[in-house]
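@channel sequence for tomorrow's demo:
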Amino acid sequence: MTYDEYDQLGGRFEEKEFKEIYPYAKATMEGYIMDHIPYWRVKPLDEYGFDYKEILLYEIDFLLSCGGINACLGKSDFNFNSVSTSGFSYSVDGTNMEYYMGIPLSPLFKSKLDHALLKTGLGCMLV
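structure tokens (generated this afternoon):
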């Protein structure tokens, strides 16, 4: 995926940010796929039979929205439970956040990718 493709799909961030996060988002997608399909069916992204670029856009924008490169290094904006200062406290229930290898996953990315894997016969539906 190039920055121009990302931009045409509606990406919200500048080229510098895209170039910094893209390798991590792509590796996240590839790793997630490898962990969810049989090892003998693993191949390059372009050969799976679905358009992965729009799905990847969701993860790129999500990662950039929750800490950028820090989100890929285990320091996302979701890595806290509460914050307190004089007269103010804020807590977050991050238990519903899904991660892959410590990297936060966009719910839309995960849903669309799981659906694409099912649709191409690479995934399986759990009952």
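heads up for whoever presents: Residues 49 and 120 are 7 Å apart (CA to CA).
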